[in-house]
Structure formats: structure tokens, C-alpha cells
Design a protein that fits this description.
- This protein has four helices and 13 strands.
- It is of the alpha+beta class and 261 residues long.
- The chain has three domains: 83 residues, no CATH class; 63 residues, Beta Barrel (OB fold (Dihydrolipoamide Acetyltransferase, E2P)), CATH 2.40.50.100; 102 residues.
- α1 runs antiparallel to α3.
């Protein structure tokens, strides 16, 4: 007959303020330490529990350059989005200013319809003059070639309207391109700011102020502490059919004073 294992390993995540009544996780017993009293009613006790981090990452640099600011302090707690370090961004700032000026110029060109309005006025004037020369030609007051010249000038004025419309459409497209170039410059500037990807505890600084780093070079070690993983063993024969997914958990942690007796 096949024997079932008496102990099974369990793991669960626990938030910093998590509390419940069903599963009691206890660290390995230590001599001289008395665990806090907990009602045994409806309590499943897990033994040999170990607390582990879920997110423990080396925060990398996003761009190449020299570290000009290192705001991270070992042992400090930071929030998501906090600035931890800055890589030299002098050239990136100048590039952004240039792209912003070019975008503004392109925007003004895209909004400028002076050439189009001038072409419309010229076309109306040329068309009226052509009609006048047609009337004069019928009266025999002007030669045929003078009338044809005015008619061609009117047609040319119509083409100038189409050209002005095309130029304005091109200016709008150029504005979109310059706006994208400005956004790229902003992104490049953002890449030189090393920010916390999540709230946590700065375990140690890996790079130093003034050091030259490459994209992906680790700057510091960041550990998330508001959500941890607890792993332990539970006696399935003692609690048959009671271990279920999603059950509330209460985790009790001994203080240093309790550990020292």
C-alpha cells in the first residue's frame, strides 16, 4: 500500500497588514521562545516557516553615461516612481530644447494659410481679368493672343491654389514628424532618470557617484517588503481536508527580544 507523505510544503503571499483566523504560520521553534498565544479553534498550524521576498531586483541604468546624481541611500524606504539616480543628461536637455523649437516652427507653418488665401485672391482677380478680355475680344478691342494670355494666367492662378493646399498638407505632416522627434527626445531624457519600479527597501548601492555605466548596468538592489512569501510545512494527517486555496492566514513573527530570550 502506497504511503502518503505526512508533511506537505505550502507557500502563500502575505501583505504587511494581513490578518486571518484559519492558518497560523510559525517559524522554526527556538529554545527559550514562547510563541504568542493563539486560540486553537479552527487553527491549522504550519511549522518551519520561512519568509522570502517576492520582488528583489537590481534596478538598472537605462542609458549610457556618467552618474551625476545618486539619491538612493542604503537602508532607505522608497515609493514607486521616486528618483534614485540620474545619468548625465546635458546633451539630452539641449536636444530636447532644439526639438521643441523645431516643433513650434513646424506648428506655425502648419497653421499658416497665408499662401492659400493669397492664391485664392489671385485666382479670382485673374479669372475676372480673363472674362474682361474675352468681352473686349468680342468687341475687337484687343488681339486674340492678349485674350489667350489672360486665360492662361487665370488657369495658372487655379494651379497655385492647388499648390498652396499641397504645401499646407506637407507642413501638417512635417509638424507631426517634428512632434514625434520631440517625444523621442523626451523619452531619451527620461531614460537617464533611474526611478524606483516599485515601493521597497534599498538593500545596497551597486554603482557609485561619477561612475560610467552602460544600459542595463545595475545601480542598486531594491527589495519589496510590503508583500512577502511565507513557505512552510503542514501535517496533512493532523488536518485532513482542511487545507484549502484562498484561506485567510495569520503570520506571527518573533521580535529580536524574543529570539534573545
Amino acid at each position: 500500500m502506497r504511503r502518503l507523505p505526512r508533511l506537505i510544503s505550502i507557500s502563500f503571499m502575505v501583505a504587511a497588514a494581513l490578518a486571518g483566523d484559519w492558518l497560523f504560520a510559525q517559524a522554526p521553534a527556538r529554545p527559550g521562545i514562547t510563541p504568542p498565544s493563539v486560540s486553537e479553534e479552527n487553527v491549522l498550524r504550519a511549522e518551519n516557516c520561512i519568509v522570502k521576498t517576492i520582488r528583489n531586483v537590481r534596478v538598472p541604468a537605462g542609458a549610457e553615461g556618467r552618474i551625476t546624481e545618486l539619491l538612493a541611500v542604503e537602508g532607505a524606504n522608497v515609493q514607486s516612481g521616486d528618483l534614485l539616480a540620474r545619468i548625465d543628461d546635458t546633451q539630452s536637455k539641449l536636444t530636447l530644447e532644439l526639438r521643441q523649437a523645431e516643433e513650434r516652427e513646424a506648428e506655425l507653418n502648419a497653421l499658416n494659410d497665408v499662401n492659400f488665401r493669397d492664391a485664392k485672391n489671385t485666382e479670382r482677380s485673374a479669372a475676372a481679368e480673363a472674362e474682361a478680355y474675352k468681352e473686349l475680344r468680342r468687341e475687337g478691342a484687343v488681339p486674340y493672343w492678349e485674350m489667350e494670355k489672360k486665360i492662361l494666367e487665370a488657369e495658372r492662378a487655379t494651379l497655385r491654389i492647388e499648390l498652396a493646399e499641397l504645401q499646407q498638407d506637407i507642413a501638417k505632416i512635417q509638424y507631426v514628424a517634428k512632434r514625434s522627434e520631440r517625444q523621442v527626445a523626451e523619452h531619451e531624457l527620461t531614460r537617464r532618470q533611474v526611478v524606483a519600479p516599485f515601493g521597497g527597501y534599498i538593500e545596497n548601492r551597486i554603482s557609485q557617484l561619477g561612475e560610467w555605466v552602460q544600459p542595463g548596468s545595475p545601480i542598486l538592489q531594491l527589495v519589496q517588503l510590503d508583500k512577502l512569501r511565507v513557505e512552510g510545512d503542514i501535517d496533512v494527517l493532523r488536518y485532513p481536508g482542511k487545507v484549502t486555496r484562498g484561506a485567510p492566514v495569520k503570520v506571527l513573527i518573533h521580535s529580536n527580544a524574543e529570539r534573545s530570550g
